[in-house]
Amino acid sequence: MRDLKAGISIKSTASLNGSFFEDTTILIVEHNEAGSTGFVTNKPYGKSLHDLIEFKHSKPFPLMDGGPVDRANLFVLHKRPDLIDGGKQLTNGLYLGGNMEQVVKAINAGANDQEIQLFIGYCGWDKGELEAELEEGSWSLK
Q1: What is the mean pLDDT of residues 129-141?
Q2: In 1-128, which ranges are continuous DSSP H helix?
Q3: Mind listing the domains of the chain with CATH numbers?
Q4: Cα dist. 20→25, 28, 49, 53, 108 in Å?
């Protein structure tokens, strides 16, 4: 599917009701010959950054439930390359990753969740899996 690329959002359909993906919107951050990666953007995790032991000195900041894969790690999307080094530009000023110390510093200085999003876990598909799920109607392009 040629419309599938980084920066595209997909929305779950009713066929995924009753699963982790019920009523989710996923931002695709990587799509290549190896597969696809994305983050659920509309599912709060239920905890704040300062609830995590290693970030207990940070200001309260919402965490999102990014997906069922690698839930032991924190992932960041941001629009502040002026404050956060090391991010990979995805599209239109949106960056993936970066220096976590600088992320926390930006949050403590007042950056908001429109500038920085933090995710516990991510969504991943092997080569061809997401295309097959789109074809069968589990997802729609948003």
Answers
A1: 95
A2: 100-108
A3: 9-141 (3.40.1740.10)
A4: 12, 17, 22, 26, 31
